[in-house]
Amino acid sequence: MTSTTSIFSPVEADLQLLTENLKNLVGARHPILYAAADHLFGAGGKRIRPAIVLLLSRATMPNQEITPRHRRLAEITEMIHTASLVHDDVVDESELRRGVPTVHKRFGNRVAVLAGDFLFAQSSWYLASLDNLEVVKLLSEVIMDMAAGEIQQGMNRFDTSLSLEAYLEKSYYKTASLIANSAKSVGILSDLSAEASASLYQYGRQIGLAFQIVDDIFDFTGTTSALGKPAGSDLKSGILTAPVLFALEEVPYLETLIEREFAQEGDLDQALALIANSSGIDRSRALAADLAKQAVAHLEVLTPSPEHQALIDLADYALSRLY
């Protein structure tokens, strides 16, 4: 399987610089924050979001160097993403992230909440320094979307009446909004037309949703070591994702198990078996594949380049993780 390391080779040096900058930007104020930043930004994340920003930046600025504002946008994107992960892990009481202890597990809830707050505040400060009101509005909306998505997810736990449309909306808020709006922001900073910037937004939206659905499939097909958290943990928490929603259409008894919140011994294992034996996972794969195909179609506004090809390859990579 192709790795993100090879896909991101056109921006490898940019990503190394970004990682060092992030540690310095976040950690300069306080030793505990520096330790948290080093823990977060050294935890082996794939850097997919800033890589997309950097690839789009280079693809939209052919034959010239990207600007400091493009680089800062990539850093802001990763800051916002990481802040949301820190807060999500506190809310979900997760002990592992990317196979290592979460910030709240290592430093305590108080430091984790404050570290997340600091990252959001720091990202807002650097966002203002971009001196582009349209980009400020787009990325500020992302932070609101993330909060709205987290609230929706909390309100819909164990709700078997959840529609696929509502699931996709929540997935957009929690995951795809950041990729979509940062992609559109690249277009704005590169002085593209409104139509071309809108196409970059759609690329980000569709590939963000595809990645989320693939991650949701992994909750049923992955191992604990590969996931960095126990398999089936989303379902156990009452988070109903695409494989579950599709399976519910075929297996009515699954509704009973979910609505009693797996209260009886063996309920969760039975539910996992029912989902595995349904077409829920296959239909989720097909949905992710369709979204990835739509994402690639929106890249036609870009001229061919190694960065353009990497963005296409990223859509293939999202799906190849399933096999």
Keywords for this entry:
single chain, 323 residues, two-stranded antiparallel ribbon, 1% strand, mainly alpha, Farnesyl Diphosphate Synthase
Task: Outline the structure in words.
This protein is mainly alpha-helical. The protein has one domain: Farnesyl Diphosphate Synthase (Orthogonal Bundle), CATH 1.10.600.10. Helix content is about 75%, strand content about 0%. The chain is built from 17 helices and two strands. The chain has a two-stranded antiparallel ribbon. A hairpin with a 2-residue loop joins strand 1 and strand 2. Helix 5 packs parallel to helix 8 and helix 8 packs antiparallel against helix 9. The protein is globular, with a radius of gyration of 20 Å. It starts with a helix and ends with a helix. The model has no long low-confidence stretch (mean pLDDT about 90).
**β-strand amount:** under 5%
> N-to-C terminal Cα separation, in Å?
9 Å
Describe the strand arrangement of the main beta sheet, using strand numbers: 1-2
DSSP E strands, number:
2
| CATH class identity | Mainly Alpha
What class, by secondary structure content?
mainly alpha
Average pLDDT figure: 90
* Tally of helical runs: 17
CATH topology: Farnesyl Diphosphate Synthase
